[in-house]
Amino acid sequence: xxxxxxxxxxxxxxxxxxxxxxxxxxxxxxxxxxxxxxxxxxxxxxxxxxxxxxxxxxxxxxxxxxxxxxxxxxxxxxxxxxxxxxxxxxxxxxxxxxxxxxxxxxxxxxxxxxxxxxxxxxxxxxxxxxxxxxxxxxxxxxxxxxxxxxxxxxxxxxxxxxxxxxxxxxxxxxxxxxxxxxxxxxxxxxxxxxxxxxxxxxxxxxxxxxxxxxxxxxxxxxxxxxxxxxxxxxxxxxxxxxxxxxxxxxxxxxxxxxxxxxxxxxxxxxxxxxxxxxxxxxxxxxxxxxxxxxxxxxxxxxxxxxxxxxxxxxxxxxxxxxxxxxxxxxxxxxxxxxxxxxxxxxxxxxxxxxxxxxxxxxxxxxxxxxxxx
Length: 373
Ligand SMILES: *Cc1c(COP(=O)(O)O)cnc(C)c1O
Prior knowledge:
- By secondary structure, the chain is an alpha/beta fold.
- 41% of the residues lie in helices and 15% in strands.
- It folds into two domains: 9-39 and 279-369; 51-277.
- Bound molecules: pyridoxal-5'-phosphate.
- The site of pyridoxal-5'-phosphate has 13 residues, from helix 5.
- Pathway: Amino-acid biosynthesis; L-histidine biosynthesis; L-histidine from 5-phospho-alpha-D-ribose 1-diphosphate: step 7/9.
């Protein structure tokens, strides 16, 4: 990097890691000359969105010369009704990652501590650091579960903000309703609790998963729950997520840092159309959960360690450098995510795809590891 330009930047910026979004399908095709690509690196829904979404987008094509509704009124009202909250308790984002960034811009700065999990969803760490806050990471237990006692102790020290992913990305483990109640008990009123439920539609099929919004209601502490249309709803390419906060005052602060037209028209229209066909989403989620259990069992039977997952992905220990394994899989047209955080470099995260792609993954992994799976 050019020295001079780096000196002009805020001191936090040059030290931030670049987000590792992986290679695109086209890049893999060109580099390795493979035809079929199994896209299992980004936890997308391979079944895609309801067909109603495509129809709604075709109709939209005649109106794209207009700016979108900056308050996303139709979508906001629909989501408020869905969750039985006031429209003023909702913030919409260009993906929920946009809201993670707004939260850090509005609430964190130099001297603040942000609490989250390790291994983590990278942006739970990168955005606070971007603002100059320091990040405290809670470790997993030895059996790849959340450490309730460590989290409660850390929450009692009143960090400015706590990112609680439920379930975890990349591990897939979850907080149960009972554990979540204890976290809430331990939390200080000086901490904004941010519960990231990107995989809630999958996790709610796992017994014990909390009704977080119900538990947070009237808890007397500041909170916001984040959801996204990128995963189960199949709209990752359009970018739309939202947050439900306990208090409209939280949303009013986020609105100060939000870019006015952050959720584009196509995203608003598509999310509305998807919401109207929830049954389609539920069917795809059920299919994925069945596939997940079959894949996990197959990998475990072959002697690989797989963390219990309440999501649409698996965290798998491969017994050697996962980056090297990932490279071998790429050459066979299978995209997964090798983990890079210290202590987890022998783990890969694989999204649960359609049956034939999971099959391709298993065959490719078997070839790369040189053992039957
Ligand atoms: C995928 C994911 C998101 C981001 O989703 P977008 O709405 O696409 O920005 C947020 N949090 C977690 C934990 C995720 O896995």
